[in-house]
Design goal:
The structure holds three protein chains of three kinds.
Chain A lengths: L3 E10 L5 E10 L4 E6 L5 H8 L7 E9 L2 E2 L5 H10 L1 E4 L3 H4 L6 H12 L4 H14 L5 H6 L7 H15 L3 E5 L7 H18 L2 E6 L2 H5 L4 E6 L2 E7 H6 L4 H28 L1
Parallel strand pairs in A: 3-8, 3-9, 6-7, 7-8
Antiparallel strand pairs in A: 1-2, 1-4, 4-5, 9-10
Chain B lengths: L1 H8 L1 H18 L1 H4 L31 H37 L1 H16 L2 H12 L3 H28 L2 H8 L4 H38 L10 H10 L9 H25 L12
Chain C lengths: L1 H27 L5 H8 L6 H11 L5 H13 L13 H36 L4 H15 L2 H15 L12 H29 L3 H8 L4 H21 L1 H15 L5 H11 L2 H29 L1 H4 L3
Helix pairs in contact in C: 1-13, 2-3, 5-6, 5-8, 5-11, 5-13, 6-8, 7-8, 8-10, 8-11, 10-13, 11-12, 11-13, 12-13
The chains are: A alpha/beta, B mainly alpha, C mainly alpha.
Chain lengths: ~270, ~280, ~300
């Protein structure tokens, strides 16, 4: 049985009767990565928020979100709260506004660890420092004392990833973690994810509008357009023989750019060896 | 046109509009409708109970309470509306001049507004009434003086915002004169926010005028005015507390209607409920 | 940070000067001649000679700017002249009355803030519930009710009908209760609405989504939202202090509370210009200074400004 099973997931706006996403279905097993690809407005973020029960209150979510067999859409608020963070963790797109501007990063990481695990404050702080070090962040103690506005977007993104790592969830959802970053930071963050997968073996859902990025991380791919699922399957299959016109369009326009991205990653990899 | 549709569909807002319109009409036609002369004392009938002849009874001088309420509409409500109108006129006029001319004129008007705005409105009103002396005209002048600066500032910033939008540039390129642009293009856009503020402020003006009249700084006896009626009711509180009710309820209902209308207009203008500014005056 | 404070300090100097000038200007271009008023108040016949003498006495025959300069210099030293009525220094009159107003305003501040924050937070957390709707109804009516009516109703109910509190005067703790309740009720509606709306708005922010994503408890999330909302409304909340002091005018009048509000209204009736002048200047300066202090406090509490550029 797969870890997470999405069936017929549909989200409708009660106020305007507009359908945001329609009949989405996919499966995730542990230690696999699913890439969700689509343009802005295709419904990628809505899908992930719906899975966690965090869709806006005026949206109606129907279908099945089976996590270890039980449908999350019918779960109690408290059950959902316990699953969020501990079992399913999400990394937001805009790292700069994700942290509360009035508290230090360290405070927020420690409070997350304390409320999700059985840690006390001292242990939580140690774990936070350890995971920051694993993310190759220098002087983690200093970083913990800083506020969000004092760190760069890339650094904040890595803090979020570190926090996710420390929580050791079964599934990690990364919502366009590289979109708000410049090229150099993008590369670093993708490497973090690769490392994360190697170390922890957790399942991942990686959302992006960038095919090239997804290609390096995912085994399966889901293509969305205008709220509908147009393509779903193993990544090599989709790339070789895309079924849908839209997928083909994405691949063609991406090929040229992907090429140079590949070159850069190859150079980096050969440097590491 | 969406705005009117949305507003019309808000039933309570429509109710408020009808209510307020009705109140204003009652006030204008008070001489025809009121059962008695509001100023005529009739000591024999003082503190009469509610009856067909005196629907709300009589006050301490035997004057019909209902008639005084109706005549009071002119003093309280209609006057407030006129005050608001004058404030708007001055504010809009100066705001558009400032926004459109830039340079020294703009600078001068803005400095003046800055100083006036750092004066709290309550204090400004006391200052002007203090300087000119008690009286209804002075209260009105005080209200206008207290509020115009805010409208000037607001309208100026709106003008400057719209000024830089493309459709104004197109109009200029097409050869329209400045005044034509102001009339046809700028005013309709700017009007929306101003109307909301003005509606909410009207309630404030009503409260201010009645407060000052209550203190004795506004209308002078025996002119019927709701605040003044409450002041008279205070003196007989121990014996006839019910006299406090009609004018107080009247003020409350009218001000509430204006407030509700203002909120509804704001919602109709921007249904997403974009309350980016929590306004505390 | 220090530079920010310095900048703000320097910025209010021209405003303070503008205020002092404006206040002086207002009083002195009034239609009534202060000399004539002063004479009339003392029941002296206002013959042209008497007026001329009085003008010289009050220094009104000097040119405008010299009068302004003298007045400004004197004011800075605390000399606002003498009351036309009592002939006592204005400063004395004001100092006698100010503690009463201060007591009234301070107590009202505590109550207003306590009640507003409590209900503001509660309504934001339970948005849409029956309780929320009731409170919003109360707020709506509260902002429409004239404060003097509220005072009168309370006075009738508690002082006359139930005879629990005195109707007027200032003696003992008993007598401050009704004025404080009246004054607080006037502003509680506004501040409940402010806090409630700010918190509801903040709920849409990205960092709130992240707190939920991290699986934090409801109480913790509310604490995050509350702190940010307080930060956002701090200036408005801080301005409640001078507003309350200005707002005592009506309450002091109803309950015959011997504070500066009552002093000012009496002065207006008596055309006692020195007192009116001093009151205006004092209140305006209070507002401006309070605004400045709130700006600085906000800056200190916000790590984004505190850490500097």
């Amino acid at each position: 049985m797969s870890l997470l099973n999405i069936r017929n997931l549909t989200v409708c706006d009660r106020r305007t009767d507009e359908i945001l996403i329609k009949d989405i279905h996919f499966e995730i097993d542990s230690n696999t990565c699913l890439g969700i690809v689509g343009e802005s407005g295709s419904g990628k973020s809505v899908t992930c928020k719906a899975i966690l029960g965090l869709a806006n209150p005026w949206l109606e979510v129907t279908g099945q979100v089976l996590f270890e067999g039980s449908n999350l859409l019918n779960a109690e608020q408290e059950t959902l709260r316990q699953i969020r963070g501990k079992r399913i963790c999400m990394i937001l797109q805009d790292a700069m506004t994700a942290f509360d501007p009035l508290y230090t990063i360290g405070y927020q990481m420690v409070e997350t660890l304390c409320e999700n695990g059985q840690y006390n404050k001292t242990d939580a702080k140690i774990i936070a420092i350890e995971t920051l070090q694993k993310m190759y962040i220098h002087e983690p103690r200093l970083v913990l004392k800083k506020y969000a506005h004092q760190l760069s977007g890339g650094m904040l993104q890595r803090c979020m990833i570190a926090l996710a790592m420390a929580l050791k969830p079964d599934i990690l959802i990364a919502d366009e973690p590289t979109t708000a970053l410049d090229a150099i930071n993008q590369r670093e963050v993708i490497e973090e994810f690769q490392r994360l997968r190697q170390i922890t073996g957790m399942a991942m859902i990686f959302i992006s509008h960038d095919l090239g990025v997804v290609q390096h991380l995912a085994e399966k791919i889901l293509v969305m357009k205008d709220g509908e699922q147009v393509e779903y399957g193993p990544i090599e299959q989709v790339f070789e023989k895309p079924q849908h016109v839209y997928t083909r369009y994405l691949l063609d326009t991406r090929k040229a750019l992907t090429k140079s991205f590949h070159e850069a990653m190859k150079v980096r990899r050969s440097k590491e060896c | 046109m969406n705005f009117w549709k949305r507003l019309k569909s808000d039933r309570l807002a429509v109710l408020c509009m009808i209510l307020l319109l009705g109140v204003v009409l009652l006030g204008i036609f008070a001489p025809l409708i009121a059962p008695h002369d509001p100023l005529e004392p009739n000591i024999k009938f003082k503190f009469a109970d509610n009856s067909l002849e005196y629907p709300l009874g009589t006050d301490q001088l035997g004057r019909c309470v209902l008639s005084r309420l109706l005549y009071g509409i002119k003093t309280t409500v209609v006057l407030s509306l006129l005050t608001m109108g004058a404030t708007l006129f001055i504010g809009t006029f100066l705001g558009i001049i400032a926004g459109f001319s830039r340079g020294k004129v703009d600078e001068a008007i803005m400095r003046l507004c800055d100083v006036l705005l750092s004066f709290p409105s309550e204090v400004m009103i006391l200052a002007i009434v203090g300087m000119l002396g008690p009286g209804l005209t002075n209260v009105v002048i005080a209200n206008i003086a207290a509020k115009w600066a805010w409208y000037t500032r607001m309208i100026r910033s709106l003008v400057m915002e719209y000024r830089d939008k493309n459709y104004i540039r197109f109009a200029k390129v097409a050869g329209c004169s400045s005044s034509h642009i102001m009339r046809k293009h700028l005013l309709p856009g700017v009007l929306g926010d101003v109307i909301v503020l003005a509606t909410l402020d009207t309630g404030w003006v009503i409260l201010t005028i009645s407060s000052l009249s209550f203190l004795g700084l506004g209308v002078q006896a025996p002119t019927p005015e709701w605040g003044m009626m409450l002041s008279e009711a205070k003196n007989i509180m121990t014996t006839h507390p019910a006299q406090m009710l009609p004018p107080g309820i009247a003020i409350m209902v009218v001000v509430a209607a204006f407030n509700f209308l203002g909120d509804s207009i704001r919602d109709a203008l921007d249904p997403k409920g974009d309350q980016t500014k929590a306004v505390v005056k | 940070m220090k530079r920010y404070i310095l900048q703000r300090f320097l910025a209010i100097v021209p405003i303070l000067i503008g205020i002092s000038f404006f206040a002086f200007f207002l009083i002195n271009i009034g239609p009534s001649d202060p000399a004539e008023v002063a004479l009339r108040v003392n029941e002296t016949v206002a013959t042209p000679e008497a007026i001329a003498t009085m003008r010289r006495e009050l220094g009104l025959d000097k040119p405008f700017f010299i009068r302004y300069g003298t007045w400004l210099l004197n004011s800075l030293q605390g000399d606002f002249g003498n009351s036309y009525i009592t002939k006592q220094p204005v400063l004395n009159e004001m100092s006698k009355a100010f503690p009463a107003t201060l007591a009234l305003a301070s107590l009202s501040l505590l109550i207003t803030m306590g009640v507003s924050i409590f209900f503001g937070v509660w309504c934001a957390v339970h948005e849409g519930s029956v309780g929320d709707k009731i409170v919003r109804g109360f707020i709506f009516i509260g902002t429409a009710m004239p404060s003097f009516w509220v005072g009168l109703l309370l006075m009738w109910l508690f002082a006359v009908k139930f005879d629990l509190f005195p109707t007027s005067g200032m003696d003992g703790f008993h007598s401050i209760i009704l004025p404080v309740v009246t004054l607080s009720l006037t502003y509680i509606s506004t501040y409940i609405r402010l806090i409630r709306n700010t918190m509801i708005q903040n709920r849409q922010e990205n960092y709130v989504l992240y707190t939920k994503v991290r699986g934090l408890k409801e109480k913790t999330i509310t604490r995050h939202i509350f702190k940010n909302s307080l930060q956002a409304s701090l200036t408005a909340l801080g301005m409640s202090i001078p507003k309350l002091i200005a707002g005592t005018v009506i309450v002091e009048n109803i309950f015959a509370w011997p504070g500066i509000g009552r002093l000012c209204v009496t002065a207006i009736f008596n055309r006692d210009f020195p007192i009116i002048e001093a009151y205006i200047v004092m209140m305006a300066v209070l507002f401006v200074v309070c605004n400045l202090i709130m700006d600085i406090v906000c800056a200190l509490l916000d790590p984004r400004i505190r850490q500097g550029e």
